[in-house]
Every structure is written in structure tokens, then in C-alpha cells.
Amino acid sequence: MFSDRKAIDQVSGWLTLYDDGFVDRTWTGPPQFKFMSDTVPPHHHFIDGVATHDLSIDTNTNLRVRIYLPELPDSTQKLPIILHFHGGGFCISQADWFMYYNFYMRLAREAKAIVVSTYLRLAPECRLPAAINDGYSTLLWLQDLENRKTHQSLLSSNGDFSRIFLLGDSTGGNIVHQVAKKSAGENMGVAGAILIHPGFLRSVRSKSELENPESPFLTLDMLDKFLKLGLPEGSTKDHQITCPMAEPLEGLDLPPYLVCVAEQDLMIATEVEFYEAMKKSGNNVKLLVSPEVGHSFYLNKIAIDVDPVTSKQTHKLIQEITHFIRNH
């Protein structure tokens, strides 16, 4: 009976786990932040220059994507494709949450790119590598569109399949790196990889984990519990998915990388460690540091609206991503 269900753990207001395995993702934190996890229905008409669509791309696995299509005066123009993987510690969030909608509407419009955001399976019901497989399956679907094995008018007519950019927020950045490795050398049109505040960690606390401030977007509790629920059973944070800088990075035939970090992020020390390891291994990698802000600052509409620093750094982040895309 439902009345006999007992909560056995909670993760920083984002997730409650029950003794029968049920997972409740109802937001229980500060009420002023709840709207950022509200879902936004798709709109096929253009709002602020962008239309959105939800598509099923594999009926067998129920894999779906959300598409952000910018309005263009020239209907013959082919647009780069941003393949987006959302964050959430592998355990929460969806592609249609307001926090993503608000940012990726703006990015699609300003970068003049089509954003394809995958609805990833979530842990603990579906542990890794489920979300990685979903991301790679979406890339394969884009290749099927290019090769005309299937057709989707929004993308087939408007997308440039030779310029696909993998982009991930937080643990979505981990998925970007894994999909980039999986597709390396396969001529799948991946022109670049953009990792925004990736969830790279070690089992031992880093200096930034010990010293930087926590926020509703990232706490030490979230780092520990989400990854325990998301990683393959029995794994630690030293697993290659969360600690890729501990494995060889030479000779992987990776595309150019843009690694974006925030000065006050709990994970900046290990994120920069990854960047340094990529650079030392001879990979084409660029680092963007956003000063005076924390993890996923650009998804926090409240801060963007009221804090000039957050607003300025969000604008700069979009500029740098746009510049990266236009130059690759």
C-alpha cells in the first residue's frame, strides 16, 4: 500500500527515495526556485524568434528529443546542430524544464543553431550507462537523417549534419565526453564538444569542494548521493565517467573541446584538472572561466534578472559558445 511507503533518503530538496524503490522528484526546496523545474509545453509557433517541438525518435525505447528551431529570413540556410544533454546528476531534470527552455531558446536564437535536446533516462531506475546510450542513440538518429534512412522535415531541411556540436550541462558534460569518445573516428559530423561545468570529480574532496560555497544548484550532498545512485553499481567517483582525467586521453581522435567552468563552482578544481590533462595529451581544447559565479549560474533566471554579474557572465558564456560554433 502507498500508506506503508517510507522515505529512506532525500537529496537537497530535489529527490526523495522510498523503501520500495519509488523515486519522487517533486521539488521540496525553497519555493521561489520551483518554477525552474516546471515543464514548458512545446510551441510550434515562433516565440521570441524560436519554435519548439517534441519528437519521438525511437518508439521501441521511447527515446524523445526537444527541438529548438530559430526563425530565419533565408529558408535555404543550413544551420549547425547543437546536440544537448541536460544535467541533474544523472538523477533529475528533463529537457523540457523551464531552466533549460529559458537558456536554450536564447542560445538557439543568438547562435543561429538548431538545438536538439535529448530526454535522458534517469537513475536510479536506469543507472549509467543508460543516459550515455541515449545520447549516442540521438547522434545515430541525426546520422540516419543525414543519410536519408529516415526523414524529419524540421531537421532534414534546415540542419547542417556536418556541423554537430555536442553540448552538456553539469553531468551532461560527462555524457558529452563519453559520446565524443564513442563516436571518435566514425565520421559522424561531430565538429566540436562543449562541456559546461562538467561533473568531473575524484573520491577525495578537492580544494574547491572544501572551500567554495554551496547553492540550490549544487551541494556536496547532491554530489555524493546523486553519483552514488547514478554510477554503475559498486562504482566510486573515480569511475571513468566522473573521473576521465585519470585515464589516458592521448590518441582518442576527439573533436575540438570548449570547457566552461565557473570560479565559485564546487567542482572547478577537478574540471580544470581535466582541461589540463586534455591539453597535455595534445587535444584541441579551450578553457573559459566565468568569474564571481557558481555552478549552472546561467540557468538561474532569478539571478540573471536581478544580479548584474550573473547577467553579464551569462551573456559572455553565450557569446563564447557562439564564437566556438562559428569557428568550427
From TrEMBL:
Residues 82-298 form the Alpha/beta hydrolase fold-3 domain. The keyword Hydrolase applies. The keyword Hydrolase applies. GO terms for molecular function: hydrolase activity. It comes from the Eukaryota. Gene3D superfamilies: alpha/beta hydrolase (3.40.50.1820). SUPFAM superfamilies: alpha/beta-Hydrolases. Belongs to the 'GDXG' lipolytic enzyme family. This is Alpha/beta hydrolase fold-3. It comes from Cynara cardunculus var. scolymus (Globe artichoke).
